[in-house]
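Exercise 7. Given the encoded structure of a 596-residue chain, write a plausible sequence.
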C-alpha cells in the first residue's frame, strides 16, 4: 500500500531544497539595473535601440518619457536564465526602438523598477542627433558596418628623412567596440624596394585602447619595421593587406534574448604611403665621407705599443653609436712597410630597435713587425652626417707609435750604420799587421763527418718507413673514390650545410631564422639553376623544378618550407618546429642535389 503521507513529506522536502538553492543563487549576486544604447550618435533618419537590463526579476517598471524621440516599437521583454557550475545566471530586459523627431542633443532620463522591495534607477545618457545620413544603420549590411568600424593604418615616424636615416613603420589594426574580429590572414606583404629593412619582432598581439579620428577604438600592433632609405626623392612604401573575419551584431535575437551576429570577411589595406627622402648636402661634405649617417664615436687602439720583432699586436678600428652601422665601410689603417699586416677581422655588435641601429662595428688587424725601430701609425679620419644637426662631423684618431725593442735591423738601417762606420777616420800605427800569425799551428785536428753518422742512417730509413703509410692511404683513397653513392651523399650533405649555416646560427630566434632559411633556399636554386628565384612565385618555382625532373614529394617539401618562412612572421613557431624545418631543409637540399 502506498504511503501518501511519506510521498507528501518527500515532495515538500524537495520543494524546500530547490527553493533554498534558488534563493542562494539569487542572494549571491548584486542587483544591477542599467540602460544601454545602440549608439551615442545617429542621423535623423536612423533608429535608436534602448535596452533596460536587470539581473533580478522586478515589478513596477517605469520608463522615461524619451523627450525628442518617438517610440516606434516597444517595450518588448526578453528573459535569459541558465545554470553554470551550480551558479544561476539571470537577465531580463525591456527594449525600445526610437525614432528621433529633430536634430540636437537629447538626454534619455532615468528609468526605475522595484526589485526585492527596493527601487532601482538607471543612469541618464546623452544622445546626439545629426542630419540625415546617406545610408541609415538599419539598412546597412554587415559589410557596410565592417567597412565603417575596421581600419588598418601604417604609422610612419618621419615622412621626410635624409638618405640613410632610420624611419619606423608600425602597422595597427583598429577595431570599433561595435564589432569583433575573430581571425585574420596576411594577403600581401610589402617588399620595401629602395629601402634597407629590418622587422622588429612583435612578441604578443595585445589589444590596447586608443582613438581613431576622434572616436574610441581598440587596436593591436601587427607589424613593426625599421627602414633606411637607399635612394633620394619620392619613395613609395607598399601597403600591407589583410583578410579579416568580422562578427557584426544584428537586430535579431535568439530564443534566450541574446543578440545574434552576422559574420563577414573583409579585406583591409594600410594604403600606399609616400615619403620624400632628402639627399645629403654636398656643401662642406668631407672628401673621405663614405655614407655614414647618425651620431657616432670613433677610435683606433692597439693591444700594446712595445714588443720585439716577430711578436704580434692587434690594432682595432672601431665606430660606435647610433645610425646606419651596417651600411658603410670602416676606414682602413695606413701602416709603414716594415710592419706586416694581415686581413682584418670584422666584428659586428649591432641591435636594431624602433629607434634604429645601435651598437658598434670594428676591424681588428694583426700586425707583426720584422725589424727593430719605431714605427708610427698615422691618424685616421672618420666622417659622418648627423641628421639631427644637418651637418657633417669629422673625427680624428691619435697617432700611435709602435716601438720594436729587439730584432734585426732593416736594410736601410744597416746601410746607414755602414755609412757611419766608413766615415770614421782610420788611425794607423807601427804594429798594424800584428794580426798575421807568423808561427801557425799545423797539427791535425779531428773532423766530424755527416756520412756514417746516426743522423745519416735515420734519414736514409725514413723513406722506407713511409712506404706502408703511403700504401694504406692509397687504399683508403681508392675505396672512397669507388663509393659513388656515398660520395654523392657526402657531397650533397656538405652543400646543404653550406647553404644552411647561417640559418643554423639563428635557431631559437624565429624572425632571423626564417629569413636566413628562406634566403638559403633561394640561394641554392640560384646556384643550381642560374636564375634569380626570389623574383618568382611558388608556382613558377614548382614548374622549374618539375622541368628538372625533381620528384613531386621533394618539390612539395621545398614549397612547404617557403610557405613556413612566410607564415612564421605572423604565426607563433616553437623551437621544436624551427629545428624540424631546419632538418627538413637539409634533407630536401640533399635530395634535390642528387637528382639535379
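Solution.
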Amino acid at each position: 500500500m502506498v504511503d501518501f503521507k511519506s510521498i507528501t513529506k518527500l515532495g515538500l522536502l524537495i520543494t524546500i531544497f530547490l527553493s533554498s538553492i534558488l534563493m542562494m543563487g539569487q542572494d549571491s549576486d548584486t542587483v544591477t539595473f542599467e540602460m544601454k544604447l545602440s549608439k551615442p550618435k545617429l542621423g535623423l533618419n536612423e533608429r535608436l535601440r534602448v535596452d533596460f537590463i536587470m539581473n533580478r526579476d522586478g515589478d513596477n517598471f517605469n520608463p522615461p518619457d524619451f523627450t525628442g524621440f518617438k517610440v516606434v516599437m516597444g517595450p518588448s521583454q526578453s528573459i535569459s536564465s541558465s545554470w553554470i557550475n551550480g551558479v544561476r545566471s539571470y537577465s531580463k530586459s525591456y527594449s525600445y526602438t526610437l525614432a528621433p523627431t529633430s536634430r540636437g542633443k537629447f538626454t534619455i532620463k532615468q528609468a526605475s523598477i522595484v526589485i526585492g522591495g527596493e527601487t532601482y534607477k538607471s543612469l541618464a545618457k546623452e544622445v546626439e542627433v545629426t542630419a540625415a545620413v546617406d545610408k541609415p544603420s538599419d539598412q546597412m549590411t554587415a559589410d557596410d558596418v565592417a567597412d565603417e568600424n575596421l581600419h588598418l593604418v601604417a604609422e610612419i615616424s618621419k615622412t621626410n628623412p635624409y638618405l640613410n636615416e632610420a624611419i619606423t613603420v608600425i602597422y595597427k589594426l583598429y577595431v570599433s567596440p561595435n564589432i569583433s574580429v575573430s581571425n585574420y590572414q596576411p594577403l600581401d606583404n610589402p617588399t620595401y624596394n629602395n629601402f634597407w629593412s629590418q622587422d622588429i619582432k612583435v612578441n604578443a598581439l595585445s589589444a590596447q585602447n586608443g582613438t581613431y579620428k576622434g572616436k574610441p577604438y581598440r587596436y593591436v600592433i601587427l607589424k613593426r619595421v625599421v627602414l633606411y632609405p637607399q635612394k633620394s626623392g619620392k619613395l613609395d612604401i607598399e601597403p600591407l593587406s589583410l583578410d579579416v573575419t568580422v562578427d557584426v551584431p544584428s537586430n535579431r535575437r535568439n530564443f534566450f534574448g541574446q543578440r545574434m551576429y552576422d559574420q563577414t570577411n573583409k579585406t583591409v589595406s594600410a594604403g600606399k604611403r609616400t615619403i620624400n627622402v632628402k639627399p645629403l648636402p654636398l656643401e662642406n661634405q668631407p672628401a673621405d665621407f663614405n655614407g655614414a649617417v647618425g651620431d657616432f664615436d670613433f677610435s683606433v687602439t692597439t693591444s700594446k705599443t712595445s714588443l720585439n720583432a716577430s711578436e704580434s699586436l692587434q690594432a682595432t678600428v672601431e665606430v660606435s653609436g647610433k645610425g646606419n652601422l651596417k651600411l658603410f665601410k670602416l676606414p682602413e689603417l695606413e701602416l709603414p712597410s716594415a710592419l706586416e699586416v694581415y686581413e682584418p677581422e670584422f666584428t659586428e655588435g649591432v641591435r636594431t630597435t624602433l629607434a634604429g641601429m645601435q651598437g658598434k662595428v670594428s676591424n681588428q688587424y694583426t700586425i707583426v713587425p720584422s725589424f727593430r725601430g719605431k714605427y708610427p701609425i698615422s691618424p685616421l679620419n672618420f666622417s659622418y652626417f648627423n641628421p639631427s644637426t644637418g651637418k657633417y662631423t669629422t673625427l680624428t684618431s691619435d697617432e700611435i707609435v709602435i716601438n720594436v725593442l729587439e730584432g734585426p735591423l732593416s736594410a736601410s738601417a744597416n746601410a746607414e750604420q755602414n755609412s757611419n762606420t766608413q766615415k770614421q777616420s782610420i788611425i794607423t800605427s807601427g804594429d798594424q799587421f800584428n794580426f798575421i800569425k807568423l808561427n801557425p799551428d799545423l797539427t791535425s785536428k779531428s773532423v766530424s763527418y755527416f756520412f756514417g753518422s746516426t743522423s745519416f742512417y735515420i734519414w736514409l730509413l725514413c723513406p722506407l718507413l713511409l712506404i706502408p703509410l703511403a700504401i694504406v692511404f692509397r687504399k683508403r683513397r681508392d675505396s672512397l673514390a669507388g663509393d659513388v653513392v656515398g660520395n654523392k651523399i657526402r657531397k650533397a650533405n656538405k652543400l646543404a650545410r653550406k647553404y644552411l649555416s647561417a640559418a643554423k646560427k639563428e635557431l631559437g630566434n624565429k624572425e632571423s631564422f626564417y629569413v636566413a632559411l628562406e634566403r638559403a633556399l633561394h640561394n641554392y636554386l640560384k646556384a643550381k639553376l642560374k636564375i634569380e628565384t626570389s623574383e618568382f612565385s611558388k608556382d613558377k618555382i614548382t614548374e622549374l623544378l618539375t622541368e628538372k625532373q625533381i620528384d613531386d614529394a621533394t618539390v612539395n617539401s621545398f614549397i612547404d618550407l617557403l610557405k613556413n618562412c612566410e607564415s612564421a612572421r605572423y604565426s607563433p613557431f616553437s623551437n621544436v618546429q624551427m629545428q624540424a624545418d631546419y632538418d627538413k631543409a637539409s634533407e630536401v637540399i640533399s635530395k634535390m642535389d642528387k637528382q639535379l
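Remark. The mean pLDDT is 81. Students should compare their own answers with the one above.
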